[in-house]
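To the team - molybdenum atom complex, inputs and output below.
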Amino acid sequence: MRAPTPTRARPHGSKRAVFAAFAALAGVVSAAALLAVAEVVALLLAHDGSPVLAVGSFVIDIVPRWAKEFAIETFGANDKLFLLGSIGLAVVVAAAVAGVLQWIRPPLGAVLIALAGALAVIAIVTRTGATPLASVPTVLGTVIGVVLLSVLVKRLRRWREAVAPDAPAPVGQAAGTSDGVGRSGPSDDPAAEGAAGTADTAGDSDEARPGHVAVDRRRFLAMTVIVAVGSAVVGAGSRIVSAATSSLAGLREALKIPAARSRVEVPAGAELDVPGLSSLYTSNADFYRVDTALTVPSIDPATWSLTVVGLVDTELTLSFQDVLDLGLDEYSITLTCVSNEVGGELLGTAKWLGVPIRDVLAKAGPQSGADMVLSKSIDGFTAGTPLGALTDDGIDAIFAVAMNGEPLPFEHGFPVRMVVPGLYGYVSATKWVTELKVTTFEADEAYWTPRGYSAEAPVKMSSRIDTPRIGKPAAAGPLKIAGVAWAQTVGIGKVEVSIDDGEWRPATLSTAVNADTWVQWVVDWEATTGAHYVAVRATDKRGNLQIQERAPIAPNGSSGWQRTLITVA
Ligand SMILES: Nc1nc2c(c(=O)[nH]1)N[C@H]1C(S)=C(S)[C@@H](COP(=O)(O)O)O[C@H]1N2
Ligand SMILES: [Mo]
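Output:
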């Protein structure tokens, strides 16, 4: 064996970088332990206490509108995954910074973790419906995280001291050595200490402790690996168990929704046969999803209830059975999101089974002076709908319990949601609805109103080209250009298409199911090789032409005629 040479020189820059990297790793591992402990305690004690979900929901509520729009536009239904990924990345970076801070300026790293824990606790206790108990998982997790970080960094320091005891330590090390940091921890293994065969005071000597290097390194790495693996197993396990046990999938599948008293009559010619054209009814699997819910609420229909409060003669509460007992009818309604760009895909059509909201409101008796209904979701989301839109005999505003022949999918509002023809989803289509408050626009504000969207928002008439699509060259010769158009509550009267900015030619329309359902349109064209512009515009049954002027989605929905480039090969 080669005689060890005591190192008197400062560790090389690269060596210092290695220790800093290990410190960063200690930070990340400590944060992982924090989250894992919080998840498992949340599972056992307080289901609403998951810091990951609480912070995620908090972020959703505070991110600026453009960021939200970007996420929805870029990631569509995966916007939540994107959000969780971003938060995860931020946590890893912050934890690494905490590790390095603890290394160079203790106890700043521990302070940073404690601060992060405190912020998470604030996010948790300020959530709608959160109990004080919900803060316990994160508080416990944070304590563990702080302790682990300081123990791990102490071990790292010990290892480094063994390599080069007299090298000027990272700032703050002096304090660490003088009070014997790293050698008095309760978790230090006396056996390992004995095996090293060195007196406890070795660290105070000027000599390197080469014999210690391997032991100290092993002790740091072993603890790091154990904590990392333990956190991964415990954290992921708890999340999975908690997701599985709170899942009501079986219940939903077994749920018997009574037969409808009336069915939607789909007239002959309601569905055109054109490849690439949206189907008249959007399958539940393909139906767009937009909401602020990070985890889909799971509600047991047996415990669900809907209360009607506010400016009413009689406040009332309905159970799920009470809703069913009102008698179900089937409705064909196209639901549209205010975030739908011209030509966009944030809309869909379904056959909904439900009961008129006006029937429920009538039982409560709205008082004069009321002009708005604030509907609340179990997750805190609210929508403000003009009272008139919910009481008008001519508008099929419903509480829906089924969608395209099955109980509402969880993501679409199980067990009960609202669907109101002619109004964008954010002002009307509350999913997981649990309360209606009859009120006024003056007294109450819905979720999106202070976030840059209008308090009232009727759906703007629009038309969309489905086929041919950019990037999918069509063949020269007879070609069908087709798409959908909608003007909810009024109905589409005419759709016109212009090719290469030529004259507007009328499209053939599918037979409308009703005024609340989009129609399909098709134009036959002899396609010539090359690139062509195709534009589309609609006119409603009252003769109003679709708005030509371009408008962004905020504050009350996009407008403009879609004009798109197609290529014919
Ligand atoms: N509870 C709840 N309901 C909600 C929302 C929400 O964020 N939370 N978003 C609304 C919006 S903006 C739209 S466009 C529709 C979308 O319904 P879908 O996801 O079933 O397509 O739901 C509405 N209902
Ligand atoms: Mo929306």
